[in-house]
Request: fold
Amino acid sequence: MPGVGAVASTLIAGVMAARKGSVAPIGSLSQMGRIQVDPTDPGSDTPLIREFLPIASLDNLVFGGWDPISANALEAAQVANVLDGPDLATISAELEAVVAMDAVFDQRWVSRLEGVRVKDLPSKWDQALALIDDIERFRTENECDRLVMVWCGSTEAFQEPSEVHESVAAFETGLKENDPNISPSQIYAYAALQSNVPYANGAPNLSVDIPAMVELAQTRGVPICGKDFKTGQTLMKTLIAPGLKSRMLGLRGWYSTNILGNRDGEVLDAPENFKTKEQSKLGVLGSIFEPDQNPELYGNIDHVVRINYYPPRGDNKEGWDAIDIFGWLGYPMQIKVDFLCRDSILAAPLVLDLALFMDLAGRCGASGVQDWLSFYFKAPQFDHDRIEHDLFVQERMLHDQLRRFAAQ
Reply:
C-alpha cells in the first residue's frame, strides 16, 4: 500500500482483530456478503462470497507499504486517531511490525505535506527501479505467492493527461528524462505493473487511467482498476440518485459540502489538490440521471461540491447535502442529508475487498481494466465510453463477474 496512513493502518488493525475473532469484518462484501448462485432462480442458494469462490483468507494476508511520514502502522494509527486506545492495545505489536518503506515523494504534488522518509533518488527512472526492488524484496522476505498494490496515499494535485502518458515507450522516456508531468502515483503504478502486481487506485489521482498504463496492463496481463474510494458523501449520492430516478422525480440542484480534519483534509485544503477530488465527485450524477434521455427532469442541474479542512473533526468527516427536487406539477421539495461518517472506517473494507478481488481476477487470467469493480469507486475506470455510477447496477456487475469466475 503506497500510503501507510489512516486508511491503511485502520485496514490492518481490522484484519488483525478479525483474525483474533474479536470483531466481524463489517463493511466487507468479500467477507460478509452473499451471492445468488442462479440470479434467474429466486430460490437458488445464496452462499457467502468467500465460500462461493477461492478467495484468499484473512489468515494468509501480509501487509506492507511505503509512507513519507509514518515509520510503521502503529505510529500511523496513533497519529490518525481513528481507533480508540483499547482497540490498538491488543494488536499494537502486529501493527508496529508493519514497517513502512521509504517513499517516492514529491512535495510539488502534495504541497501541504512534508516528506521525511523518502528515497534520495532525483531520477524518476531510478525511483521506479527502486520500487520494483522493494516489491521483489517484500515478496521474497515474506514468502508471498502473489502481491496486490492498492493506493492508499494522498490526493495529488490536478493534472490533465499529456504526451508522456500516451504510450509505455513515451512514459519510460519521460521517467529517464524526469518529465514533470509524471507524478509519484504514476511511478508506483508503473512499478507494480512491471512487477506483475495488480494495481487499484484508491485516490482521484491520474495514475492507471492513462493510455500508457492501460497498454502496460494489457501487454503484461495484469488487472488494474480505479479510481477514488467511494465512501461518504458520494456513497450517499449513488444510493439516493437512483431512487429519485426510479420514481421519475426531477432534480434542480445538489449542493454538497464536507468538513474533515485528517491528513486527507489538510491535503485537500490546497486548491490544486481539491480540484482533483472535485472532478471525481462531480461526475457521479450525470451518468445516473442521463439528462439527455430525461431533459425536463435532469437537464438543468446545479451540482456544487465543497470540502473544508477543519482540524477538530479529525477522521470523523461530516457531509452535508442540500438536494432540491421537484414533483407533480413542478412543485419543489427538499431533501437534507447530514452524514456524520468515519472516513477510514468506511474505506478500510474497500481496500480489503479490492485486494482480494484483484488477486482473484489475476488468478483467473483477467487483465487490463476491471470495470466490474466500479462498485468501489467515485470515478470508476471503464474500458469503454459508458461509465456506470448507479450503485445497484454496479453491484449486479460485480456479482455477474464473480459468477463467471466461479464457472471457470
User: Anything to note?
Assistant: The two ends are 30 Å apart (CA to CA). Residues 343-363 form the longest helix (21 residues). Residues 6-229+345-407 form a domain with the Rossmann fold fold (CATH 3.40.50.720).
